[in-house]
Structures are given as C-alpha cells and as structure tokens.
Amino acid sequence: LAMNLQGSFEAAQEMYLVYHSAIREIRTKFEILDDEFKIQWQRNPIEYMKARVKSPKSLLDKLARRGFEVSVSSARENLNDIAGIRVVCSFVEDIYTLAEMLIRQDDIRLIQRKDYIQNPKPNGYRSLHLVVEVPVFFSNHCEPTRVEVQIRTIAMDFWASLEHQLRYKGVDKVPPSVSRDLKECADVIAATDQKMQQIHNILNGTD
Ligand code: 0O2
Predict the structure, then answer these.
(1) Residue 88 falls within a domain, yes or no?
(2) pLDDT under 70 in the chain at which residues?
(3) Is the pTM for the entire model greater than 0.90?
(4) Protein residue closest via CA to atom 14 of ligand 1
(5) Cα four-point dihedral sign 147, 148, 149, 155
(6) Any ligand 1 atom below 6 A from CB of 125
(7) Which residues are in the RelA/SpoT domain (predicted)?
C-alpha cells in the first residue's frame, strides 16, 4: 500500500482513518434522522445502509485513468468518492426528505448534487448523489472530509446491483438486447416506485 501510493505507510493509514471516520459521522447522522422519523411517523424511512472506503487498487486505477498524480495527497484532493455511503430508502419521497435534512445541518457543506432520479442516466440508472464535506475531529486538528452519499429506493438498488454485476463482473460486451431489457426494467421499476409512493400516501392520508 505504502509503495503503491508513493507516500509513507503512515500517510496511507491516516487517510483510511480519516475516511472511515467520515463515514461513521455521516452514518450516525442518518441513524439519528431515521430514529427521529420513527418516533414522529411510526416508521423508518431507511431500509439499510452500505458503506465502503475505496480500495487502494481502485484508488490507483481511478487516479491513473483520470491522469492525476498517483499519491495520497492527490487522491484526497482529486477524488470525491474515496468514502461512499449508500442509503436505501422505502419510498422515493424519503430520498429527498433525508437529503434535505442532511444538507440543512450546520456542519455539512454540500459540494455536489446529481439527481439521476429526475434525470436518469441513458441506461436507466436512478439515484440521488450528493458529495458532502463533514468535519472529522482528531486530538489536535480537524479534517473537513468529502463523502459521496448515494440515496435510492430498494427497487433502484435492486436494479443497480444487477447492472453493476453485468458491467464490472466479467461480462465483456453486453448485447444490445440486454441493455434494452435492462433499461425497460429500470422504467418498470420507476413506475412501480411511483405507484408504491401513491399507495403509501393514500394509506397515510397524505394524498
Ligand atoms: P463503485 O464500484 O460503486 O464505486 P466520479 O466517480 O464521481 O468522479 P461520475 O461518473 O461523475 O464520477 O460519478 P457519478 O455519476 O456520480 O457515479 C459514481 C457512482 O455512482 C459509481 O461509482 C456507481 O456506484 C454509481 N453509478 C453511476 N452510474 C451507474 C450506473 O449506470 N449503474 C450502476 N450500477 N451504478 C452507477 P463507481 O466508482 O463507478 O463504482
């Protein structure tokens, strides 16, 4: 790791500590919102969360692919997704509610917002992506640290996992018919998400 990242072992170790800690900060914020929501509305909007810090190999590949210097400081400067957390929600409206609640917090700085639900990718991918900066406090200093937050419904997550497997797990060339079918599934899923939201709103008297 130390050799690969062309920095000291300590620098790489410290980098992983910072990003792991930033994920813990963001995860706790969502857990608190989820708990409060349960008290107010008798249900949890978050089904589950998954977090990861990018592996050294993915970091190196990405830096090289984008033509950046391959070093710890370059990774910290140029990459927004070293730390990533995926928040999987029950309903589409939960996504926006949670995103706004996070962004409104005083210690959170919004760096980037990409709404792939309003504007799905051509392949059908849907999710709300935020890059936020959160302060992480250590013994004698504070590190503002960027975390990529992907917020999506269970249905969107289901689709994205399969599509991700196809793209990254050895399927070299996806036949056009498969891409079409996947896009169709994404659209069906989006329509189902909308219907589920309507049903939920009717049952809760908010429609
Ligand atoms: P992994 O293995 O999930 O980490 P950026 O990486 O932010 O500099 P970009 O393209 O602007 O570059 O980021 P964007 O569009 O916000 O998407 C980044 C991440 O979103 C991806 O990370 C995926 O996790 C997810 N994503 C984006 N598009 C798709 C898609 O079409 N299908 C699926 N399944 N996931 C998608 P990585 O690093 O590609 O992968």
Answers:
(1) yes
(2) 1-8, 169-172
(3) yes
(4) 129
(5) negative
(6) yes
(7) 51-174
- Ligand 1 atom having least distance to the Cα of 123: 31
- Token pair for 88: 């999987």
Q: Identify whether 52 is part of a domain.
A: yes
- Encoding tokens for residue 13? 């170790």
Question: With a 6 A CB cut-off, is 151 part of the ligand 1 pocket?
Answer: no
CATH number assigned to the domain comprising residue 30: 3.30.460.10
Q: Which domain, by its residues, includes 137?
A: 9-155
Say how far residue 91 (Cα) sits from the centre of its chain. 16
d(CA 198, CA 196): 5
47 located within any domain:
yes
* Inside any domain, residue 114: yes
60 three-state secondary structure:
helix
Q: Which of 81, 86, 182 to mutate to test the pocket of ligand 1 (most atoms within 8 A of CB)?
A: 81
Nearest to 89 by CA among 196, 169, 167: 196
Q: Residue 80 to residues 8, 24, 42, 105, 167: CA-CA distances in angstroms?
A: 22, 17, 35, 20, 22
Residue 123 Cα distances to 105, 183, 201, angstroms:
33, 5, 29
Pairing of strands 83-89, 142-153: parallel
Do 73 and 101 touch, CB atoms closer than 8 A? no
- Extract the tokens encoding 66: 């984008």
